[in-house]
């Protein structure tokens, strides 16, 4: 319906290209401007793109920006590295509103972003190119992209001023474990220190102050 009134450009693949193939095809059709990779099982609040963009533009070397989410590994709120319950739409809007108030302007460095909602600057995209075709369906190609970006001098940051709902694991369900293990092997070969860095990040927990600030701002227990 939106495409029929020229409100959006809609690309339809004749065959299933998979996540990476579909994203890379779309990226080729968007030669200018920043981009947002957004999973189909997410729910966003109004203005989320502009607020991600503001964080991305807060420093010239930021390449990717990832928001807080109920289900986003290190970006999960209130409990990191966990699948927190999906809020109702009204709750999501409220959490996002309070996040915008307490986290505005913050850009917290992270090892890599996550593709459930990944803002990518044009400079970063032009420097790195598309997603790698070496990963099996659906997992860790976003991490590989972010690590390649970091190797080129770009920063991956979290925007705690934005909150995106994410159901998660809807596409592959019971296949998730085998896909993750296979793709971890590819990632380990390319970036052998990444998993150790992630463990150190989780112990240090640089996102904790932002989570605590948001928890305190909410009028109900997180």
What does this structure look like?
With 222 residues, this protein is an alpha+beta fold. 40% of the residues lie in helices and 14% in strands. It has eight helices and six strands; from the N terminus they run H-E-E-H-E-H-E-E-H-H-E-H-H-H. The protein has helices spanning 18-28, 48-56, 89-103, 122-128, 141-151, 176-190, 194-204, 208-217; strands spanning 35-38, 42-43, 62-69, 108-109, 117-120, 155-166. Strands 1, 2, 3, 4, 5 and 6 form a six-stranded mixed β-sheet that branches. Helix 3 packs across helix 8 (208-217). The protein is globular, with a radius of gyration of 17 Å. The model has no long low-confidence stretch (mean pLDDT 91).
Topology of helices and strands:
Elements (H helix, E strand, L loop, with lengths): L17 H11 L6 E4 L3 E2 L4 H9 L5 E8 L19 H15 L4 E2 L7 E4 L1 H7 L12 H11 L3 E12 L9 H15 L3 H11 L3 H10 L5
Parallel strand pairs: 3-6
Antiparallel strand pairs: 1-5, 2-6, 3-5, 4-6
Helix pairs in contact: 3-8
Structure keywords:
alpha+beta, 40% helix, 222 residues
Strand content: 5-15%
Q: Assign an overall shape.
A: globular
Task: List the total number of helices.
Answer: 8
Number of strands: 6
Mean pLDDT: 91
What class would the helix/strand composition place it in?
A: alpha+beta
Distance between the termini: 37 Å
Helical percent range? 40-55%
Order of helix and strand elements from N to C terminus: HEEHEHEEHHEHHH
Largest sheet: 6 strands, mixed
- Uncertain runs: none
């Amino acid at each position: 319906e939106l495409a029929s009134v020229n409100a959006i450009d809609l690309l339809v693949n004749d065959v299933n290209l998979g996540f990476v193939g579909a994203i890379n095809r779309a990226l080729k059709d968007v030669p200018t401007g920043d981009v947002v990779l957004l999973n189909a099982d997410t729910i966003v609040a109004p203005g989320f793109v502009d607020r991600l963009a503001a964080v991305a533009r807060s420093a010239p070397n930021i390449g990717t920006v990832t928001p807080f989410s109920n289900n986003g590994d290190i970006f999960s709120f209130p409990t990191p590295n966990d699948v927190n319950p999906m809020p109702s739409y009204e709750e999501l809007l409220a959490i996002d509103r309070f996040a915008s108030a307490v986290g505005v302007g913050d850009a917290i460095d992270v090892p890599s972003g996550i593709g459930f909602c990944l803002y990518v600057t044009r400079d970063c995209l032009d420097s790195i190119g598309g997603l790698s075709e070496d990963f099996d369906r659906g997992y860790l190609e976003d991490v590989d992209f972010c690590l390649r970006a970091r190797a080129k001098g770009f920063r991956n940051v979290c925007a705690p001023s934005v909150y995106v709902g994410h159901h998660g694991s809807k596409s592959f369900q019971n296949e998730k474990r085998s896909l993750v293990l296979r793709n971890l092997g590819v990632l380990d070969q390319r970036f052998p220190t990444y998993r150790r860095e992630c463990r150190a990040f989780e112990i240090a927990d640089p996102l904790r102050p932002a989570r605590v600030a948001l928890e305190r701002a909410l009028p109900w227990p997180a």
